[in-house]
## 1
Amino acid sequence: MRVLLADDHALFRAGIASLLQLWGLEVVGQAATGPEAVEQAQLLRPDLVLMDIAMPGFSGLEATRLIKAELPETRIVMVTVCDGDDDLFEAIKCGAEGYLLKATPEEELSWALTRIAAGQPAFSPDLAKKILDEFARVARNGPRKADGDDLSAREREVLTLLAAGETNREIAATLVVSENTVEFHVRNILAKLHASNRTQAAAQAIRSGLVDLPSA
């Protein structure tokens, strides 16, 4: 398999790269930020991306969603220190085919790569149980209602500027990101607030106190 490594720690990337090469895999590229991961994936079209969650620019979750939207055949496995249920479930929603903790032993990483190569998902038994438990909970109680508490810090920044009437281009300039990144955040905001458009999201944010707009 041709593998892209996305992690902001150079020594971790170097260690994983050496291990993968020892196993006969080809490391075709490395990225240290979310935007770099997306750019490298678009350029190199790897078979697999090993993706960290917490990275500069935007998170590995956002990078995963963007990569899968354009390259659905590229498989992505999160390799992270984040062991929270929210990150696990969000990774699955973004399209990740696997989720491993950085403390994972070498043999578990090898097992995961073997499964991915065979077109199968790669989740440890403990994580697979969490996923099944969540499916069962949803079947009983329905999906969790989003009220804005699950908005990321960046999404709250975008929502504040959106509520202030800024366009995507203006928001991109203010936050020094691309318009595509802003569009990605806006889609997430609408989904999390169950809003059908920007105006509805802005009204809901102001009414519920999700954003603080400066006084005129």
## 2
Amino acid sequence: MFETWIFYCFAAVLLVSGLLVITARNPVHGVLFLVLAFFTAAGIWLLLRAEFLAITLVVVYVGAVMVLFLFVVMMLDINVERVREGFWRNLPLALLVGGIMVIEMVFVLLGRIWGAVPAPTLANYSNTKALGRVLYTQYAYAFEIAAVLLLVAIIAAIALTLRKRKDSRSQDPSEQVKARREERVQLVSMKAETEK
């Protein structure tokens, strides 16, 4: 009973934070709400005994990808009004996709209510070991393609943030190494002042 109550609390926080990701006016706030959504999804996965996936979600998405998103959103000058122009145009497609996902979740929940029982597991069963066996044998190529896509996304994000800006100041290390003390400091001899 307590575990079910925690599940519904996490699910409510996940739905609210997902809604706030879409409706947040500030892109930085949207990214932070997405971090909250990832943390609550990881909590739900822990309740479902998928510990490896929960830890991976926190480490990979919250620890790496969301930090990268946050830096990109904060470093790029995003015109929020221009981004919001396509909201009403894309709303029907978004509602269609959301409706399909809701119908799928209803079928999953009804299947569980109507008596679909998961297969029993052995006492020494490890979901991490089973996931690794399937991931690195049956889905090895898909895993490698996903890794290459993530690498390309990281390189693209870095390339976007390294553009030239007029107001940015940079230092040239080779010029700093060439500097000599005589060029930087000038000693001036002055007469001592005396009180009158």
## 3
Amino acid sequence: MPVLHARIAPVRILIADDHSLFRDGLRSLLTANGHEVVAEAKNGREAVQLAREHHPEIVLMDLSMPEMDGLAATKLITAETTQAKVIMLTASDDDANLFEAIKSGAQGYLLKNLEADDFFAMLDRAARNEPALTPVLARKLLKEFATPTEIDALTPREREVLELMVEGVTSNRRLAKRLGLSENTIKFHVRNILDKLHLHNRAEVVGYALRNKIV
């Protein structure tokens, strides 16, 4: 993958993956872009222990590892600290794994075939405490975790706005451009979404949709 300039301040990162060559390549890419790899784990149990010792800001967690898998390690890490944001970085595109990862507390779910610029864009989002998900995966989550009652409460247009917000399109200007609407109309739809879901701001909408599974 090509070397890029980091778009965010240097982040302390823990890599957890049982393939040493993949860890080596990922470490080189991250450090070349100004980030600090504070530790590397070859299984989930090591990841939990190293997270306790090094207090990383982001944990890049593989799904399938010996001794303890990535899902179990994610549950332990997120239960113990609010600082470390776990991003699953895996070859598995299985929907069930995606859903379980988010329910386990993961901040994001990325596939290993992601392009470098998209990968760093996702790191940027995670560092800002936003979900690190591609649009396709975000839509899958929204459909999986939304309850029928709440989905029925939103109009088709409001659902479109909500899906774009989950994808990271949160400003009125960008939402209006994507949907071909005026900014005032977008404000109206966003206000309706907030009212129907009993939330206060857009950040709460995204967090509620993904981490609280719209329940």
